[in-house]
Amino acid sequence: MTDSRDELAQLRQRIDGIDDQILELVSERARVAEEVAQVKAARGEAVQVYRPEREAEILRRLSDANPGPLSNEQVAVLFREVMSACRALQQPLTVAFLGPHGTFTEEAATKHFGHGATFSPQNTIGSVFREVESGSAHYGLVPVENSSEGVVSHTLDRFLGSELAIVGEVELRIRHALASHARALDEVERVYSHQQGLSQCRAWLDVHLPEVERLPVASTAEAARLAALDAKSAAIASEAAAERYGLPLLQLRIEDHHGNTTRFLVLGYGAPPPSGRDKTSLVVSSANRTGLLYQLLEPLARNGIDMTRIESRPARQQGVWEYVFFIDVQGHAEDEQLSEALSEVRDRASLFRILGSYPRAI
Length: 362
Ligand SMILES: O=C(O)C(=O)C[C@]1(C(=O)O)C=C[C@@H](O)C=C1
Prior knowledge:
Layout: H1 2-42, H2 52-65, H3 72-90, E1 94-98, H4 104-113, E2 118-122, H5 125-133, E3 139-146, E4 150-151, H6 153-159, E5 165-173, E6 177-180, E7 190-193, H7 195-200, H8 202-208, E8 213-216, H9 220-227, E9 233-237, H10 239-244, E10 249-251, E11 261-268, E12 278-285, H11 292-302, E13 307-314, E14 323-330, H12 336-348, E15 351-359
Helix pairs in contact: 1-3, 2-3, 11-12
The structure holds prephenic acid (PRE).
């Protein structure tokens, strides 16, 4: 007994010593980040505090060097917070996100920017864009696609009338919980969630709550707020949202696909330089004629460009049945091969806009 107490005391003493060293080093790192800010300011250019390509480079290097036992994800969480605090010393960033508090978009925003940023919840995707366009927020976070439910069309459509660029992407594993004051599933009479939440848990609901009314609402966080109001309601939401609204968890991990992942975009001004592992998003269109899509994509295929996504949307301001294509490709628009391919696409298109080149999600 005494032995194990001594051993514990010794181990704790070692941890204290290590913590002192970590604190010393983190403080030194923060002082260097302040020097970086002075150098940036002395160059006289508009100061870009947030450098997504540099942050991606740091996280990838550390992930390659990670000796364990912490996972690469855990190492990334720790170092994102360190960078977030260093960034905040230079300039506190405001990030608008699709709210309210407790949404998966908030989780994605915090994952990406860390707790050193200030987060500003918005009611709609449109107002996230507006906050950044008007300068009220430095950056914005919006969902763009889910691995099982597909595209968030509002987000794509909003780019057509905006000058904003994509400066980053975030991928988040979406784990849904059923949260309710009900003590058992058979007490639940209605389930609230965002339409995407209901769809992502459709098979689970069919089996476990087949008779229960499914009510789509504006967000999973709003679902949690509503479900907290009476014990016969439940919400499909994140554990964080359930906790925020004081809702007990009835069942965890009810999403039909366990790899369920949503991709979010970071909106802003500016164009991050290449980070080494980038993605480029563009929107293109052409006069409505035979072979249109082939004509537009052929230069990409010929130059060996890897296309990761294509989405067609009605052009709206053009002819009634004309379409625009949102395309993601691997690489940075400044890479030689991609730059060549894109200029050929540009020559063939009536509408061509690079929405952004940015580091691939980590
Ligand atoms: O390298 C820079 O430009 C910095 O400002 C330093 C730092 C960091 O803490 O490492 C902080 C913010 C940037 O987004 C990138 C990196």
